[in-house]
Amino acid sequence: MSAHSAHIIVIGNEKGGSGKTTVAMHLAVGLLRMGFKVGCLDLDYRQQSLGRYCANRKAWVERTRVPLPMPQLTVIMPSSSDLKSQAIVEERASFDAELARMASECDFVVIDCPGSDVPLSRHAHTYADTLITPINDSLLDLDLLGQLDPMTWELKRAGIYSGLVWELRQQRRKTHKSGIDWLVTRSRLSALADRNKQKMAEVLPKMQRVLGFRLAEGFGERVIYRYLFLWGLTVLDLAQSGIDLELTKSHQSARAEVMSLLGNLWLPRVTERLERI
Ligand SMILES: Nc1ncnc2c1ncn2[C@@H]1O[C@H](COP(=O)(O)OP(=O)(O)OP(=O)(O)O)[C@@H](O)[C@H]1O
Ligand SMILES: [Mg+2]
Questions:
Q1: 52 lines ligand 1 (CB under 6 A)
Q2: Residue 248 lies in a domain
Q3: Where are the alpha helices (DSSP H) in the chain?
Q4: Measured in angstroms, how far is the CA atom of residue 228 from the centroid of ligand 1?
Q5: pLDDT exceeds 70 at position 241
């Protein structure tokens, strides 16, 4: 990495469909709108959702001529080697090269991981200055962070993803001599109060101390987060002139959620630029 290395944000969770790509795209656009240079690495070469999101944004800008800030984007492609060990080495090398290039050119690099445990995703976690794990507000999804006793609701043991983060944190300390700031965000929160939501609110703050993450507010369940994908837009773009979409109360709340997450990440030079969004 160069002396002017970027701050690296990894979005990871082995559980699929927890909102990782949605968070990645919104953070990237938020940072761009603050005037930072942002690189995006999509490690999910099967779905390439972040890659497709950015490609849609580029196409929308070309079609409408409304200038939107654009991140650099690279999708790390799989190795063609039949030999698994060789494929791992090749994919790591291509990731390392691309990350080093982006880190020397950008202020932030946002890395979107697939919703499964693959060697490249593990490798990327060891580069995380900040790791964000969005989880669906469900006790089933929570099991990957920590296993709970059904009678006492006490934490019995770490879940598989927390165990993995613990292991990769040790690895990172050895290789990079610094830690990982790990944030867990509750994703797709419903507006309704129910028992599940109440229990999640009770147990997560207790788990954070033991498992070593910080809990932050995530994004609520809102149609707008799903609706903008085909144009490559985010809720932070809606106020820009030339975008013909009404800014409703719900959209404004979504915007406030994204800004709040950006503020809670404690990223370098971000707090003083939040009002630029
Ligand atoms: N806050 C939200 N409100 C409503 N829908 C959402 C929200 N966040 C994500 N979604 C929708 O939920 C689905 C999964 O989101 P997303 O693709 O961001 O998750 P992911 O964790 O990246 O999934 P994967 O593990 O498959 O990569 C998508 O259909 C997305 O549009
Ligand atoms: Mg994804």
A1: no
A2: yes
A3: 20-33, 49-64, 84-105, 119-125, 139-142, 160-176, 195-211, 223-227, 249-264
A4: 12
A5: yes
